[in-house]
Amino acid sequence: MTERTKPSYDGAILSFQQKRGQESCAFVLPFLRPDMRLLDIGCGPGTVTATLTAHVGEAVGVDIQPRSIAAAKESAVEAGIGNLSFLEADMIALPFDDLAFDAVFFHAVLYHQDATTLARTLAEARRVLRPGGLVATRDADVGGNILDPDLPGLRLALDLWQRWYEHGEPDALHFGRRQGAVFRTHGFEPIWTGASYVNHSADAETRRETVDDARRSLNSLGPKLIEKGQATEAELEEALMSWGVWENDPDAVYLRCRCECVARKPDAA
Questions:
Q1: Residue 42 phi, psi (nearest 5)
Q2: How far apart are the first and last CA of the chain?
Q3: I want to staple 61 with a disulfide (CB 3.0 to 4.6 A). Which of 27, 86, 233, 268 is the partner?
């Protein structure tokens, strides 16, 4: 496994991911078949991978973080899912033979990568895919988020989370809308594009859960951002206070945009 800098995960972020299995992969389900072998790259705690197993013959999840893989394996054992496995692996040096999979899936993975890592990652996806195989991604596009009331402190909170990921590419925050073009540039043929929203404000209980998640994440990441010189105490306090104001508005809205794309590896490739 090629050594490189591991992404900056956080316990609060992983906890949030565990709640979002079905909605994260709904767009790709119509393209899957029961005889497929699928690879979920950057699988995190494995929630999405586990959901996908009901629609394919076998699903394999890989992640560079040992903590994520440990959590995924534990959940798979508890659920008793036989066609699901996980292993620690680097997405730019996958431990699989050529043409080993019928589909490759990415969720909230590619927009974090610089141009070099992105190119190497998609080259590995092409290598392990059989001709005609599918690659699907669902990723962020910050320009599509909907907030009301649109408080400066809430925008600041979203910005603090983006600072944590330390995006090196100027277009990273609008990666979602460019997914088709990115796939085409790297030798795939886009066949479907779309978008959906993560609804953080469906009802009072959802809004309370959203605020709890936001506060937990900010309280966890805030001191680390301050230590790295990427945020100030005043910014953290403003962000936390704004979530309290948002929570007390019975008509508050927070819809987080996720762009989606399905492409195929050409039959002759």
A1: 75, 50
A2: 25
A3: 86
Q: What is the C-alpha to C-alpha distance for residues 92 and 124, in angstroms, rounded to an integer? A: 6
Q: What is the DSSP letter of 45?
A: T
pLDDT at 64: 96
| Residue 39: band (very low, low, confident or very high) from pLDDT cuts 50, 70, 90 | very high
Run of H or E residues at 67: helix 66-79
Give me the residues paired with residue 135 across strands: 104, 263
Provide the 3-class DSSP secondary structure of residue 247: helix
Cβ-Cβ contacts under 8 Å for 168 (sequence gap 6 or more): 114
The pLDDT confidence band at residue 21, using thresholds 50, 70 and 90, is low
Encode burial over 61-76: b for 16+ CB neighbours within 10 A, e otherwise. bbbbbeebbebbbebb
CA–CA gap between residue 23 and residue 26 (Å, rounded): 5
In terms of Cβ atoms closer than 10 Å to its own Cβ (0-12, 13-18, 19+), residue 208 is exposed
CA atoms within 13 Å, Cβ hemisphere of 100:
14
Q: Is the pLDDT of residue 196 over 90?
A: yes
Q: Which of 3, 16, 88 is nearest to 48 (CA)?
A: 16
Phi, psi of 227 (to 5 degrees): -60, -35
The C-alpha atoms of residue 50 and residue 46 are separated, in whole angstroms, by: 6
